[in-house]
Structures are given as C-alpha cells and as structure tokens.
Amino acid sequence: MKTTTVRVASASIAAMLSAAPALAQDMAALVEGARAEGMLTTIALPHDWCGYGDVIAGFREMYPFLEINELNPDAGSADELEAIRANMNNTGPQAPDVIDVGLAFGPAAQAEGLITPYMVSTWDTIPEGARDAEGHWYGDYYGVMSFIVNTDLVDNIPTSFEDLLKPEYVGQVALAGDPRASNQAILAVMAAGMARGAEPGAAAAQAGLEFFAELNASGNFVPVIGRTGTLAQGTTPILIQWDYNALSARDTLAGNPPVEVVVPSDAVLAGVYVQAISAYAPHPNAARLWMEYLYSDEGQLGWLAGYCHPIRFNDLAARGVIPQDMMDALPPAESYAAAVFPTLDQVNANRDAVVAGWDSVVGANVE
C-alpha cells in the first residue's frame, strides 16, 4: 500500500462551512448526531484495497470519538447486500451502516429498498452518469482490469487474455474473488469476453464464461480466491484483478517476490464502484459523516494514494490540488487510453449472466 499521507480535508471542510452558514448548521448537527451514536460500522473494506487503510485512519483522526467497527474485510458486493438483509431488525455490531459495492449492485440495492438517499456537500462535482439522481448511490472510484504476475515463477509475462490459455501457464491463473459474488471477478469475466470481440453486457458475459471454461479445462485456471499471499507463495502466480489492487500488492511485496502489473492489450475494462448508506443503518449520522469525508478532497486523495481514480478526479485536477508525486505514481496515461466504461445496463446484464452461468458453463467452485 502507498504510504503517501494527505491532510487537506480539515481546511477544505472548514472553508466550506464558513462559506455556507446553512451548511455549517447541518454539518454541526451531523457531527453531534454522530458523536451521540459513537460508532460507524463498515463492511468489505480491506486496508490494502484502494488505500482504505489510510482513508479509515484519516477519518478516525478527524473524528476520534467514533469507534470504527470493521466487518468482514474480504466480503464481496453480494455479501454486503446480504449483510443488510440479514440485519434489518438488528441494531447491533453486525449491521453495516455503509457499503462500497460494484456499480451493478447500487441500483439492485435501491430497487430492493436496502439503501437510503443522501447527497454529500460536493454532490455537484460527481459526474451525473456516476450517481443516482436522488442520491441513493454514487460513484466513488474506478480502475481497470489487470494482471499481476509473480516474475520469480513466470518467465514469459502474459500481455493479453488470450495469452492465458497457453500451456506454459498450467496451474497459474486465478481470479481475485468468487465470480458468483465478487464484483471484481464478475467484471473480470466480462473483460475476458470483450477480449474476444464481444460487446460489453450479456454477450461479453457469455464469451467470458466460455473463455474461463476453456481456461479451466486446460488446467490453467486455479479455483481459489487469489490474494497477495497466494501470489507470493506461488499458489496463484498470475492474478486477474483491478489495477489499483495489483499496484498496491506490488508495493506491499516490495520486490519479494518481484512482480509485474500488466493492463491486457486485448481488453481495457474500467470498473466503477459506488457508495451507499444502509436504509437500516444503526448509526445514520455517522454514516453521513463518513460519506462527507470520503467525498471531501482528503477522502478523494486518499483513494488516489491507493492508485484508484477518485470519481471527483477531474474536479481535483482542475483546481490543482493533486500532489505531483501522486500523479507520477500512476501508470502511464496511455494505459487507460482505450478504457471502456460499460453502461449500467451492460454491467447489470453481465452480472446476471455470469452469476447464473458460472457453475453450468465453467464448473469451477472458486473458494
């Protein structure tokens, strides 16, 4: 994980409050409400994902009166929604206040009545296409699908999805999640389908499932959830995951073993994640305060320090508040030039097809 520390939110929030007395009253009430609640419960936020360790530390430093209760850091997006369903009538520590899920899961949660609307103070700087008009969910960051390769064990680095089918990669390729529940893995299937020329959505899902069926039949696919540890140990020396997770893992490993991060040449799929507040949040004020922090300059730059492109990136860049060292640490801009941002309908169609078809088409129980 990058260790760059950014401390700008105190000033930016202070300026925001002084410039808008009505907002100051709202923020003051929000802070006091959160103080009375005393806790924020998060879920599925591993500290090495998108710089979340430092983001959580920054929030804790700003609001030391709040206990941060972190549930199941390795949960997938589907698990997060299930946690809300399972705790609708539970105000105890197992009920999440907030969720961070793949784009397709935001509208699904909204349709089911699992999340409640809230518009942060920086709402107008979130692109319209990346937010629900009523504030039920809103984009937070994005990255592109990549490969991270343990070069101690892999001599020839694959540069495309099609390369992964080569016999030299037997027992080496894994996903960073269960494609029946993990947004990251579900979209990796779509990227594989796009690499074969299929349009994003149901077509790419089918083509991607067929790709992974071939990968599994060839013996190249390893049916475990790949992590930095399995990459380093050699259980999964080639891991398909978001670029920000791969780059963070590269920093964590610090050359032991050496790794290389590759954006595949045959499909550059960009994936947006979204934030939302549970409609059954035991700590609604703390949840809103958390959102205000995440969408402040500090929260956004905290994600950028973890190699994620924050949703307010264009606004931050236009105002010149992004430190140069952060810009220099990102992959070259040309790596993202061909990035495809699928529509919400395409993401939903892909999710449904992958979740429904993985067992029957691929037949690999990833766990």
Describe the overall structure.
- The protein folds into two domains: 9-140 and 274-333, Periplasmic binding protein-like II (D-Maltodextrin-Binding Protein, domain 2, 3-Layer(aba) Sandwich), CATH 3.40.190.10; 143-270 and 335-362, Periplasmic binding protein-like II (D-Maltodextrin-Binding Protein, domain 2, 3-Layer(aba) Sandwich).
- It has 14 helices and eleven strands.
- The protein has helices at 9-19, 21-37, 52-62, 77-86, 105-111, 183-195, 202-217, 228-233, 243-253, 284-294, 297-305, 313-318, 324-329, 344-362; strands at residues 39-43, 67-71, 98-102, 115-116, 138-150, 173-175, 221-225, 238-242, 259-262, 270-278, 309-310.
- Strands 3, 4, 5, 6, 7, 8, 9, 10 and 11 form a nine-stranded mixed beta sheet that branches.
- The longest helix has 19 residues, at 344-362.
- The protein is globular.
- Residues 1-25 have low confidence and may be disordered.
- Residues 1-24 form the signal peptide.
- GO terms for molecular function: thiamine binding; thiamine pyrophosphate binding.
- It comes from Pararhodobacter aggregans.
- This is Iron ABC transporter substrate-binding protein.
